[in-house]
């Protein structure tokens, strides 16, 4: 039951974040502003999310984690409800910033609780399912929210998310332990985690891995319609199919984390690089191009569980005071990667056109390949040093 509520929490957060994609036009019409102006809400959300998550995580570390999670969930509920009731665009921006400010810390605490209550051998599967909650929100929550917005108004879409939030809050209050193992420390000691090469290499890997994904996915609609020639009527089904591949990708990620994890990631990135550089050559062949995009969707989330477990394991072994911060690193730098990838893809469209957009993403994937090789080497050196130290004593 705890596993289900963890996934439900991720689904709730995913719906709140992604639903904006499908209702931008409705909001623009409501407040009489341009679509481009409303589109900035996505950038604002990602930026506030990435900046606020480490700050809130660090400064709430000394408080009871159960109580902290309950407070953050209440703030999220207030922010999401305020979004639904916003009387003007300015208040809508403020409400989105409130929800973004706490969303990252909520999922970080959920990851911390998950790692505490799950047996070691069950952790990879549980973490992969938590990440799947976001994919499920993208596949099912966004189209349902869009349909609600179209039929009954965009405000009702966010009110539905508030209902889910109340349900999730109640289940978390009922099921979670009031106390879990917790080490409190100063700001400096918490941030000492970031000096570890295994963590530094890991966060750079996450950043460029996300940038590689959003270096082409930002323009997935024109890739499918303008370039591959699929009709607008088939777009929802194609996006649904790509979303399903993303869910499968998170499950594959869990399996990979149980069998070597990061050791196998260089092969994944070599395949991703090859597909990204091949993609422009397949755009005049609809089926082949779609197959390339489907395979890319299958492998782009594979890093999630191995890197999340890596950060947690490093913190548990050497930086127990930084557990929650370690839990948040993946989501923080993934959002920075989204910003980098989407900005680069926009530049690529202006300079080289949509059909060549994946070349920029391929460069990011190449950097990610270098970083995962460096990370594996850093892990190996640490393991060798630990074995030498054990022999000496």
Task: Provide a descriptive summary of the structure in words.
Residues 2-380 form the Major facilitator superfamily (MFS) profile domain. InterPro entries: MFS, MFS_dom, MFS_Efflux_Transporters, MFS_trans_sf. One of its GO terms (cellular component) is plasma membrane. The chain is an all-alpha fold and 393 residues long. It has 2 domains: 1-182, MFS general substrate transporter like domains (Growth Hormone, Chain: A, Up-down Bundle), CATH 1.20.1250; 183-393, MFS general substrate transporter like domains (Growth Hormone, Chain: A, Up-down Bundle). The chain has helices spanning 2-31, 35-59, 65-85, 89-117, 123-152, 154-175, 187-191, 197-217, 220-227, 235-258, 265-282, 286-299, 304-318, 323-352, 357-392. The longest helix has 36 residues, at 357-392.
Quick description:
It is found in: Cell membrane. The chain is an all-alpha fold and 393 residues long. The chain contains 15 helices and no strands.
Shape: globular
Radius of gyration: 21 Å
CATH class of the largest domain: Mainly Alpha
CATH topology of the largest domain: Growth Hormone, Chain: A
CATH architecture verdict of the largest domain:
Up-down Bundle
Based on helices, strands and strand pairing, what is the structural class?
Answer: mainly alpha
Q: In percent, how helical is the residue content?
A: over 70%
Mean pLDDT: 86
Total domain modules: 2
Largest sheet: none
Helix tally equals 15
The SSE order reads: HHHHHHHHHHHHHHH
Number of strands: 0
Approximate strand percentage: under 5%
- Uncertain runs: none
Distance linking N and C termini:
44 Å
CATH superfamily membership of the largest domain, which one? MFS general substrate transporter like domains
């Amino acid at each position: 039951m705890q596993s289900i509520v963890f996934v439900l929490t991720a689904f709730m957060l995913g719906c709140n974040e992604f639903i904006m994609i499908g209702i931008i036009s409705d909001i623009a019409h409501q407040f009489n502003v341009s679509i481009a102006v409303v589109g900035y809400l996505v950038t604002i959300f990602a930026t506030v999310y990435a900046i606020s998550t480490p700050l809130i995580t660090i400064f709430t570390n000394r408080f009871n984690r159960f109580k902290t999670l309950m407070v953050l969930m209440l703030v999220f509920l207030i922010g999401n409800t305020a979004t639904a009731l916003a009387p003007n665009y300015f208040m809508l921006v403020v409400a989105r910033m409130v929800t973004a400010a706490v969303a990252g810390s909520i999922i970080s605490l959920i990851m911390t609780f998950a790692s505490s209550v799950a047996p070691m051998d069950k952790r990879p599967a549980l973490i992969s399912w938590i990440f799947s909650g976001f994919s499920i929100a993208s596949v099912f929550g966004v189209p349902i929210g869009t349909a609600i917005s179209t039929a009954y108004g965009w405000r009702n879409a966010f009110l539905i998310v508030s209902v889910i939030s109340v349900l999730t809050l109640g289940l978390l209050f009922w099921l979670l332990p009031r106390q879990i193992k917790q080490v409190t420390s100063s700001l400096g000691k918490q941030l000492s985690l970031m000096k570890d090469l295994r963590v530094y290499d890991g966060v750079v890997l996450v950043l460029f891995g996300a940038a590689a994904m959003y270096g082409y996915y930002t323009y997935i609609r024109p890739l499918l319609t303008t370039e591959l020639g699929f009709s607008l009527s088939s777009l929802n089904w194609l996006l649904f199919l790509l979303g399903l591949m993303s869910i499968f990708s998170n499950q594959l990620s869990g399996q990979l984390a149980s069998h070597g994890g990061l050791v196998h990631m260089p092969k994944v990135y070599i395949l991703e690089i090859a597909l990204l550089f091949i993609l422009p050559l397949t755009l005049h062949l609809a089926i082949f191009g779609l197959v390339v995009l489907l395979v890319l969707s299958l492998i782009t989330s594979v890093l999630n569980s191995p890197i999340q477990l890596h950060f947690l394991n490093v913190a548990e072994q050497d930086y127990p005071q930084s557990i929650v911060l370690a839990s948040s690193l993946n989501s923080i730098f993934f959002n920075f990667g989204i910003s980098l990838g989407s900005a680069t893809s926009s530049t690529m469209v202006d300079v080289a056109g949509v059909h060549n957009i994946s070349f920029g993403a391929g460069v990011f994937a190449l950097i990610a390949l270098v970083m995962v090789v460096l990370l594996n080497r850093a892990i190996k050196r640490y393991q060798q040093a630990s074995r030498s130290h054990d022999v000496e004593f």
